[in-house]
Amino acid sequence: MKRHLISAGDLSRDDALLILDTAEELAQVSQRSIKKLPTLRGRTVVNLFFEDSTRTRISFEAAAKRLSADVINFSAKGSSVSKGESLKDTALTLQAMGADAVVIRHSASGAPHRLAEWVDGSIVNAGDGTHEHPTQALLDAFSMRRRLGPLDGRRVTIVGDVLHSRVARSNVLLLATLGAQVTLVAPPTLLPVSVGSWPCEISYDLDGVLPKSDVVMMLRVQRERMNAAFFPSAREYSRRYGLDRDRLGRMPDHAVVMHPGPMNRGMEIAAEVADSPRSTIVEQVTNGVTIRMAVLYLLLGGAELEGGAQ
Fold first, then answer.
1. Where in the sequence is the domain holding 269, given as residue range(s)?
2. Considering 4, 57, 131, 133, which one is annotated as catalytic?
3. Residues 72 and 187 in one domain
């Protein structure tokens, strides 16, 4: 059976390091005048997006094309899916087309897992509901490692709307596997009930955690969800949990600032912090293509992930 990347928790330490090391080698391709390898020539990668995410979709498309794969972009909006076709029917169509890999983003947690039961090709989870986003966690770890070196013992603080964030869950799982110590900082209303079982610490005091942090990752405040009164006001949230110049000054000199994007400048992160040399936000976008190349290369290029990824 072919391999999939559905959860960051499926990756062993060896798997994760193999992906990061492969990405490091593939990053050199991006330095060339011709940014292409013939590795996946003749293979078909389908981007199956039931939710909008221009950046993630373009990143996967660029990654597949740099490996010479054929790419089919399947947007659920305006397709037969919006007319009521089920995920299973869509899967059978992809199977009939001979898709070697399907990159799926879906609003329902668990959709990639179900798709893997119906399609012979490799499934890559590009975000399912509020559940997981494993390639985002991999590109974040890759970005940290390039700035700070090995992640063993590094202290990573993830701040903000953990409740609705698939990025936070995948990062916690992957970073723990790589030996980092993760602390989540959020209002109690924005932490999931299950967080007690995650391999991380919890704090409600951002200022107390900053001086001990090697990495501070700010999560997007999902304004579309804020009608549920998770905190009193945008101003109050920004005052307690926003990263401004003063808070940046409390971080160690070597520490870096991250954000998975898109950002609300002036809400969870001040513009001057987002644009500072301490920020890896632009690098994260570049590294996203490289990491997704590594994932597709390892899933489809013949090299096997060694550990527990399935």
1. 134-280
2. 133
3. no
